[in-house]
Structure formats: C-alpha cells, structure tokens
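User: Modeling request: complex.
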Amino acid sequence: MIDRLNQGLRKVPIWLLYLLGDLYPGWLLYLGLTGGLGPDPVKALEHALGEAALQLLILGLAVTPLRRFLGLNLLKFRRSVGVLAFTYVALHLLVWLLLDVQILSQVFNDIIKRPYITIGMVGFALMLPLALTSNNLSLRRLGAARWRRLHLLTYPAVLLAALHFVMLVKGFQIEPLIYLSVVLFLLLCRIRVVG
Amino acid sequence: MARRWTNTLTAADVTPKAAFLNRRQIMAGLGGMAGLAGMGALPGAAQADELEPNSWEDVTTYCNYYEFGTGKGDPAEYAGQLTTSPWSVKIDGMVERPGDYDFQQILGEMTLEERIYRFRCVEAWSMVVPWTGFELADLLALAGVQAEAKYVAFETLYRPSEMPGTAYRVLDWPYREGLRLDEAMHPLTLMATGIFGKDLPNQNGAPLRLVVPWKYGFKSIKSIVRITLTDEEPPTSWNMANAREYGFYSNVNPEVSHPRWSQATERRIGSGLFASRQETLMFNGYEAEVASMYEGMDLAQNF
Ligand code: HEM
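Assistant: Request completed. Predicted assembly structure:
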C-alpha cells in the first residue's frame, strides 16, 4: 500500500503543489471580494491563511516521522511545503497590516505590546532566513550541514506559531490546544531522532 | 412606563438609504428630548450618518453565542434546535414579587418599541442593529425592586442537550452577566425580543435578551432565564474567566485597550474587504446619555 502510494507520489510534480498552493489564497481573495467569506471577510481571510500556514508547517514537521514510522516518503515535497507555509504567513501578516489594523502607529504598538502578536512576529522572523535559503544555490553555498543546522529554526518557529494560536483565542478553547499538542508531539519525535 | 427614551422609528425606517434623511432629523430631535440642548459637542448628525443598520444576513450569521460554539457562524448553524417556547424568567432576590414570569405574560404587560443602536463587540468589530423590545426598567417595575437592591444579575439558559458548545468548558456555564441598578434602570437599557421587526432568531438570544448599547457586546446577555436583584456586585462570566481582560463595567472606551488589542478603532461588519477602520466613540456614542452615571470614577481602573 505505502509502496504504491510512494510510487504515485514520485510522479506528482512539485510545480503542481506550488500551483495549488498559490491558487488557494487567490481563491480566498476572490471569495472575500464576492461576499463568499461572510460578513467579516478581513478576519475570515486572516484566519484562513493563519490556519493553512500552521497546517503546512505541521505537515513539514511530520515528513520525517511519517517516513520513519509509516514508510511514507514526502521528502521531495518538504521544501515546497515550507516555502508555501512561509508564503501564507507573509500573506497572513499582510492582511493584518493592510486590511485589519491599517494604522501604522497601532501596528508598532501591537507588535510590542501584545504578546500573541510579538510571538507571531518572532515566528515570522525565524522563518525569513529559511525562506530566503530555500533554493539550491543557497544549499550549495552554505553546504549541506550548515544549511540543515540553519533549518532547525523551523522547530522554534512552529512552536511559536502554535503558541500564538493558543494565546489569541478567548476563553478556554480546544482547537488551538489540539494544534499545540500535535506540534509538541512531532517535536518530541524529532528531538529523539536528533539527540 | 414605556417610552421614556422615545424612538419613533419603525420597521420602515430600517430600509437602508430610503429613510436616511428622515432618520437624521429624528436623531437630532431625539438628542433634544434627552435634555441635551447643546448638541454641538456631540456628533449628533455624524451619529445619524453611521446608524445605517446592518443587513439581516450580517446580524443573524455573525454572532458570538458560545453555548453553540466559538465560531461566528456556529450559532446560526446550531441554535435552530433550541426550544424557546414555553419560556419563563425567574425573577428573584430583592424584589417585592419574586417568581417565575411567563414570557408571554411579560409580553402582555409591556409596550414594544424599536431602538436602532450601535453594537460594539469587545473584539473590536461593530454593527448597527434595529432591535424591538421594552425597557428593562419596566420589567423590573413589574417585579418591584426593593430599596436595598444595588445590582441586577442575569443568567442565560444552560441546556446541554440543545447547546452543543457547552460540551466544552470555554466558560463556566451558565453564562452570567450583571449591571449596577442605575445602569439597569437607564432608559437606554433594553430587553430585546426582536430584530428588524421580527421575533429574535435563536442565534441572537431568543426569546429575550439584554441590550446595553454603551457596553461591550458580551454584557448584552442572551436567552435570559433568571434575573436576580442583589446588594453585591454579581460575578460575571468573562470577568470570572479572565479578570485582567474583562472588567465588570466593560463600558466601550477607546482609551482603555484590551490587553491583547487596541479598542481605539473598530471594523464595521458588512463593509467589505477594503473598508477603513472607524474611530470607536466613548461609551459607543452614548456619552451624553450615560457618562453622568460614572462621574468621579476612574474608568481605566473600573474598566
Ligand atoms: C509564525 C507564523 C504564523 C502562524 C502559523 C500563524 C497562525 C495563525 C492562526 C492559526 C491563527 C488563528 C486562525 C483561526 O482562529 O482560525 C492566527 C490568527 C492571527 N494571527 Fe497569526 N500566525 C503567524 C504569524 C502572525 C504574525 C506575524 C502576525 C502579525 C504580526 C499574526 C497576526 C494574527 C492575528 C491578528 C490573528 C487573528 C486574531 C484575531 O482573531 O483577532 N500572526 N494566526
């Protein structure tokens, strides 16, 4: 079963992933413009992008455990999953800046004064060097070992992203805690492997 | 005695645009009636400009009613199964005539009127809603408030079999709210039974809910089953959940920010993807009517 799945996956071109991944925000934007995102399209867009980004980050984190424990090989997609996740976070940030908060002085205030925003921003900042080096040239320049060490930054980035979600909800809510648990579980898997 | 805060708007005025000019005049007149001769400082006309009600769609599909789930669309999706008839409200505590008041019987005693109010959520979004209802003061008069009462406590129905959201302890159910007696008796404080001239949809708090337009929306407790007059500040759900973020008063105040976001501006629901944020008004634009109740109080302390 897994073998056949792996064989099938080998035939899926990476550009298809990029295409689908880029269509999704476009589709959201279209929905937002045509009333398809409900009465509050700004929040709906912000949330959909944030959630998709977190899911992709988790998928990226799951690649190694999936291969180790289930034999499922998604390695070839990992880099593009990461780049897409970064794209979504960047769009998430842009929606927040341009459509939600809008006011520059308030933007700075929020980044400094509101811990869940601060944490989101740190997560974004950690992902920036990863996105910039997610190409073969950088990989060659840095050398595989250093490149891999740099990309360990995904772990704190994903953890901060999940914390960001936990911190921003009102009351005691289950969904962000489920995400955080999954992230913690995957990080534990990775730490065992690395250590 | 109904109609202390006279509002002559009818369902016909809720039609967007058509009644616009008319409404502006009514608003100006209304300010005068409330004894505010010098409306100069108050953005009376500006208020009227803004008071274009949201659509039925906006008001009935974008709701916070955590007993049905935390998503804004959850109440519209899951509240349909709620049984709202028969319905009674227990009025107890420091009242002359405690007891279970049948909803239909209450309606028989009250004069319904329409009130178009700004509605400002603590999450920094806002709407304008055309409510139908009666003043809470009239309901309290029905039960007879005793002299020593200082506060009014409210409770929402807690019925897990019909409220899927209560399976999670997002809050300590049942939902509870409270007002100081003078706030409760204020002519702006409404017990709503309808919107847009129709009965309240379940997701908006059927059959009977509070509307306190100068406070953040969560104070306007829905589907009320109990009203208790007391002489102590009653515990309130959001304050119990997080006292640092939600105070007992929770008056709309652009200068006191929520620890996690600013309250200086708001997103007006229904204005689309590229709408600008609007300035939030002190007491949600009802400063002239309610500020005197808080004279001498530090509103940053008593947030
Ligand atoms: C590290 C990458 C990030 C991830 C994975 C992420 C993910 C998320 C998720 C999952 C949500 C909740 C969506 C929902 O409720 O369904 C969210 C909400 C939000 N995020 Fe992020 N986020 C990130 C970075 C940021 C940054 C950098 C900012 C802004 C500086 C930001 C601002 C927000 C805001 C304002 C909300 C909505 C809060 C509200 O409901 O009002 N996020 N994010």
